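Record type: monomer structure entry
Structure origin: computed from sequence
Chain ID: A
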Amino acid sequence: MTTAVAVIAAILAVSLLIVVHEAGHYLAARRSGMRVERFSVGFGPVVLSFRRGETEFAISALPLGGYVRIAGMAPGEDVDPADRGAYANQPAWRRFVVILAGPAMNYLAAVLIAAALLASVGLRSPDASARVGALVPGKPAEVAGLRPGDRIAAVDGQPVETWTDLVGQLQRHPGQRIVLDVERGEGAAAARLALPITPEDDDGVGRVGFRQHDVLVRRGALGALADGFSRTNAQLGGQLAAFGQAFSGRQKAELSGPVGIAQELVRGAHEGVERFFTLVWTISVALALLNLFPIPALDGGRLVFLAYEIVTRRRVNARVENALHLIGFVALVGLLLAVTVFGDLARLRGR
């Protein structure tokens, strides 16, 4: 696959996930009797459009996602109290469902992507054994001569059976020279090696620079759907745990902005269909999770205000809520720019 095709595939994939998110809002709004004025694929000037019922469906000039415009939802919009199709005139629980439907669609899309992968090319799963996966260039594991597929039987004489055992042993030896008992190859080509290695000291934790080995798993149609649910739930839980560790300071945050995400997708497209769509799957899960964070301007922030209204039967002051959403939006844009400039672009310059 050429780089140009890979870039186009990456842009289309992310845009499609955003359109799926907006489709969730659209479908829930229509189901609730709300009037959807426009469903646009892309932003900016409208290139092509048609009308079906009360909704204008449009394709806009910038194919970077999309948006849904629901009557009576925009801040400061004048709403006729008698307009039954306006978002603002709906019961709080219906508005709650409309907002929740966006992240829910990203979750459902992730389940279907995982199921499709499992039923076709397969989906990689972590290998629980103490086996070496991909190596990080220039790190101790590569320098010591380890290879992907090597099985580590012992660390400095301490037997290890599982990946958890292996990581635990390596983390206990930051900056210390140790010897790995390595099994390489199978059958007549099998060999047993003793490789010295010195884990890097990462704030008192030993790191050697290799990833967990994985195996390709396939399922039948029904098994793929069931496994798609369980794997998506596990991915959701894993991402939530990673965010929790990053915010608590127990783990270094490795954030990626649009440039970093696009770069990973382009690399994945070059590696093959399975790798590319696995990344799309993880991004869909991340979109579902991030949008549920209780931050103003995100769906999660809106859900908090609606939950308050449902419980107390009192609406939050519109000016206060709109101001908080604006502050949240500015903060999120600032964070996105910071991650892009000091994360994505800094990593590119460092290469």
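Annotation 1: The longest strand covers residues 36-52.
Annotation 2: The chain has a mean pLDDT of 89.
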